[in-house]
Amino acid sequence: MAFNLAGLTDYVIQNAEELVTKSLFSAKTQMVVTKDGNLMTGIKSAETINRLATDAIFQAGGSCGFLSSGETSISQRVLTVGKVKVNESLCPKDLESKYTQQALPGGSRYDTIAFAKDFTDLKAGTISEQIEKGIWQGDTTSVDANLKRWDGYIKIIDAAGTAVNSNTAANIAGGPIGTGTGITVANSFDVVNSLTLSLPARVQGKSDVRYFCGWDVFSKFITKLVALNLFHYAPVGTEVSDENDGEIIIPGTQYKLTAVHGLDGTNRLFALRVSNMFLGTDLEHEEERWELFFAKEADEVRFVNEFKYGCQIAFPDEIATFKLV
Fold first, then answer.
1. Backbone φ/ψ region at 110: left (φ over 0), alpha (ψ -120 to 50), beta
2. Going by C-beta distance under 8 Å and a sequence separation of 6 or more, which residues neighbour residue 246?
3. What is the DSSP letter of 119?
4. Cβ(64)–Cβ(94) below 8 Å
5. End-to-end CA distance of the chain, in Å?
6. pTM of the entire predicted model
7. What gap in Å lies between CA 109 and CA 92, rounded to an integer?
8. Consecutive sets of 10 residues in the chain, 325 residues long: mean pLDDT of each?
């Protein structure tokens, strides 16, 4: 004889005490610009970035007299913030019919939600992801609900039309590289080096020059770098960031290549001074301030977050950029 279990379904252990949350990436660009660039606060709608430029005209010396020459100009670029809010309502009673009922307190009314910390951590991380993406890919004409809130660096730089294009035959053997080929492991080293060849002379050698690319391009570059077996170049010590977090000094240069998720899938690279990058908000870290509360009149728990955010570049002509043709 043996057990007859045909009338039973397989048992799956339901762990009501634990949820597994998805992987999230941080707003790395925000951290870089806040640390070494420019964060403008107190912006309710828009604020100007005031630029000063001057020249110096040499004249023949060795004689008396004064002849004015040259020009000093003051100009502006406007940083406009987008106004964003994140609202979500949650009905704890929806959890009663699933395994999640085990995480509910006794009784029929609930003024909190189960897994509150998991939920708020995940929500805050997801907001951070969307900010990182918006910093680069934001476009107020986009149909994407998250990208249409403010203009990001890509749109701002392209609209100015003064950045130096590095994707040329002069910079890349067999170039320019088209969309049909794309950025590959084989050409990634040339793609990155094309930025060095295109970097405007006035910013070459500046200590805050940094190259930005997506993690997809960064991975190809590292793969190619290893394959090249540059035995005379060992990226160790100060040549790699302390965190080893998607950053490396480009061989033969003093410039750091930084991978940011905001450029993932764009096939775009940018080389510029971090001091040329501006972020604007009303209150610093406002996007990290949220509230989770019980709305008694609706018998539900609500998540509320609201912030302002925007980007700008002071001197678009001091940038080298790679874009497929």
1. beta
2. 28, 215, 218, 258, 259, 260
3. H
4. no
5. 74
6. 0.88
7. 8
8. 58 54 77 94 95 90 92 94 95 83 81 84 92 97 98 98 98 96 97 97 96 97 88 53 72 92 98 97 89 92 94 97 98
